[in-house]
């Protein structure tokens, strides 16, 4: 209990430390440049305090509950003994299909951490307000989570197979550019943004642990060089999945419209 | 007060729903795949409750604090009509929030270790610290620039995909020249720079600006700041790796 309380205070101080430069910039510009009274100042300040306390509790809870077991799990799942690989046999070569549990875990953990990611919740709420409800909060988040899940699974496969990271990323860029041409214009900016917001507080520590664990266990991989890249996958694939989601919903809406107009004609 | 409690109550339910997938997945892998008991069950339950409570308070504060602040600032700058101050603010926000970002500090330290192991810099504590600090400044600078260019884009109404394609071209070109050791960490640095407090603020700033500037649509023009801020660090980190 006392350890938990101390942990919370540490998290609180760390969060305040993060917020301090932001607060200084905002209030500095507000006071010296804009020089206008802020409407509803007390309410804004209370909101700011809620954000700080909420984030500190969130981080402390993650540190206490989810990160230790998640990291341990990533370590255990990538261990050769668990995967049934006999490292003693000299002829062993890393074969990708031994790692099926790792890909499954990567996909599952990518999906579930993205659903809980606070900055994605923020962007989804904002997109929902701005679009007048057309972009659903849950729909957008699920679309992003599917993208992260596919991305991280593919990223773990890349670590196992040892193929160069930039081939995947550059191929991904080509797909994104092609999709941009056929996606409804209104969603493009939001789709690009969903790449950057997915990877923060919850996802990064667990995914990094998975990458480093994998790279240190797969023979021939150097954790220093091959352990990275999962975050890059996790920030590229949601762009594709959100655009695909927009394309699908547009197509679906068009089909319903066509069916309706067909039935009117009959 | 009653309204506040009702509101918190309903977002508490949302937070529980948001966290259920992680808990189910961890429990499934621990019990069914790894076949091990869950260690410190009590500790985990308390921790999970903290996460739920924290997320609830955060989302509430987001709606009453961070979003209104971002939008108020955007409207304030639009009324003032000074682009110089707005761009300066955009740069300061990007730079200031990134330079102290814990995830970036961790990544920079890691990159410095890689550089030392790859004999790109001397393997001494001083050289490693210098390298890490330089990298942090580089990334913060690139995020500041990104937010600044992004704000400029909203004012001028440039289409986002030209900027993003330009960024992609930059990444691809730099990949061809950067030392291979740095590529993985450079690609990852794009994702880690945008923190949980920066994202809502920057999003609200973009949306606020696009509602104040005549002829802009908040959905098509307001978003995109975060995207650009996660692209420039990749280019700058590879550039940093090439110079040193």
Which geometry of chain B do the CA atoms define? flat
Q: How large is the count of helical segments of chain B?
A: 11
Question: What is the arithmetic mean of pLDDT of chain A?
Answer: 85
List the domain count of chain A as a whole number.
2
Any overview of this molecule?
- The complex is a heterodimer of chains A (266) and B (244).
- With 266 residues, chain A is an all-alpha fold.
- Chain A has 2 domains: 1-65, no CATH class; 78-265, no CATH class.
- Helix content of chain A is 80%, strand content 0%.
- Chain A has helices at residues 2-34, 41-77, 80-83, 100-115, 118-130, 137-161, 165-182, 185-197, 203-217, 223-226, 230-265.
- Chain A is globular.
- By secondary structure, chain B is mainly α.
- The model of chain B has no long low-confidence stretch (mean pLDDT 88).
- In chain B, α6 (160-177) packs parallel to α11 (232-243) and α7 (180-192) runs antiparallel to α11 (232-243).
- Chain B is flat, with a radius of gyration of 21 Å.
- The chains are: A mainly alpha (266), B mainly alpha (244).
- At the A-B interface, α1, α2, α4, α5 and α7 of A face α1, α2, α3, α4 and α6 of B.
SSE layout:
The complex is a heterodimer of chains A (266) and B (244).
Chain A: H1 2-34, H2 41-77, H3 80-83, H4 100-115, H5 118-130, H6 137-161, H7 165-182, H8 185-197, H9 203-217, H10 223-226, H11 230-265
Helix pairs in contact in A: 1-2, 2-9, 4-6, 4-9, 5-6, 5-8, 6-9, 6-11, 7-11, 8-11
Chain B: H1 2-33, H2 41-80, H3 83-99, H4 102-117, H5 125-156, H6 160-177, H7 180-192, H8 198-212, H9 218-222, H10 225-229, H11 232-243
Helix pairs in contact in B: 1-2, 2-8, 3-5, 4-5, 4-7, 5-8, 5-11, 6-11, 7-11
